[in-house]
Specification:
With 154 residues, this protein is α+β, with helices and mostly antiparallel strands. It is built from 9 helices and 6 strands; from the N terminus they run βββααβββααααααα. Helix 4 packs across helix 6, helix 4 runs parallel beside helix 7 and helix 7 packs across helix 8. Strand 2 and strand 3 form a beta hairpin. It starts with a strand and ends in a 6-residue tail after the last helix.
């Protein structure tokens, strides 16, 4: 991992990726709910004993987290509108509104409402969209011959 890590707040780190992008990653959920990382609730000062290692970060007590996991957590914590995520998914895979609706389990009219801001999308669907952007096979699994018949956007 080509990055630098600094402490930003309790159980939050600032990751400065090799390409110059700076992101805060809040690891408090990991520490509160993952049985392996709960050790930091009992000894918070041990959280500061960390270093960048090949493929992620590593603490002095031997615990590690990969750069991929850090990236996923940072993406999930990033404030991005539902409309922006929909546009990203749609443009990246050249989906019609109908195909987008099919992939997410909505009616096409609801997709238009999400894009315009007239309706709010559930947090679970936002997580799903981010997952589809990271791992296209999730999208492909939701699509099928019926979605192909809807045609591709030109």
């Amino acid at each position: 991992m080509s990055a630098e890590v600094m402490f930003h707040a309790p159980f939050t780190i600032l990751v400065i990726w090799g390409e110059g992008e700076n992101v805060n990653v809040d690891l408090s959920g990991l520490i509160a709910y993952d049985p392996t990382f709960v050790v930091f609730t009992q000894n918070p000062s041990a959280f500061h004993d960390l270093a960048v290692s090949d493929g992620g970060i590593e603490w002095g007590n031997g615990l590690k987290i990969s750069s991929e996991c850090l990236r996923v957590m940072a993406d999930e914590q990033q404030a991005v509108s539902a409309a922006d995520l929909l546009w990203r998914l749609q443009s990246r895979f050249e989906l019609t509104n109908g195909q987008l609706a099919h992939a997410l389990g909505y009616q096409e009219s609801q997709i238009k409402n999400f894009k315009s801001g007239r309706a709010q999308m559930s947090h679970a669907v936002l997580v799903t969209i981010r997952a589809m952007l990271r791992e296209p096979h999730i999208l492909y699994a939701r699509m099928g011959l019926s979605a192909m018949k809807m045609g591709r956007r030109r």
